[in-house]
Design a protein that fits this description.
Layout (H helix, E strand, L loop, with lengths): L1 H22 L3 E6 L2 E6 H50 L7
Antiparallel strand pairs: 1-2
Length: about 100
């Protein structure tokens, strides 16, 4: 059921994006460092959104990799502690009677 709701929401977003593209069909001059190009306004908006998404993804990669490295270190620490516990359990107990 949740999957169908997600599909319906994505379909609504897609339809709204199509309506936005249709409503903003005018062409604009897009100036960049080495030249100028004429594109539809909706294409420029989509390009800006994609570039923003990629920059956000790239900026979060450093944090993601740091957290994965820390998780790996903690898993190794747990594994070493569990091995030490197993070794201590196998030691014979001293009886002082």
């Amino acid at each position: 059921m949740l999957r169908w709701i997600a599909v319906a929401i994505l379909l609504c977003i897609f339809l709204l994006a199509l309506l936005l593209a249709y409503a903003n069909g005018a062409t604009i001059a897009l100036d960049y460092l080495v030249g100028t190009i004429r594109v539809h306004l909706s294409s420029a908006l989509l390009g800006a959104a994609l570039i923003g998404w990629l920059l956000g993804l790239l900026s979060s990669l450093a944090i993601i990799f740091r957290l994965k490295r820390e998780a790996w270190r903690l898993r190794r620490s747990i594994r070493d502690a569990e091995a030490e516990i197993r070794n201590l359990r196998n030691l014979p107990l001293k009886n002082d009677h």
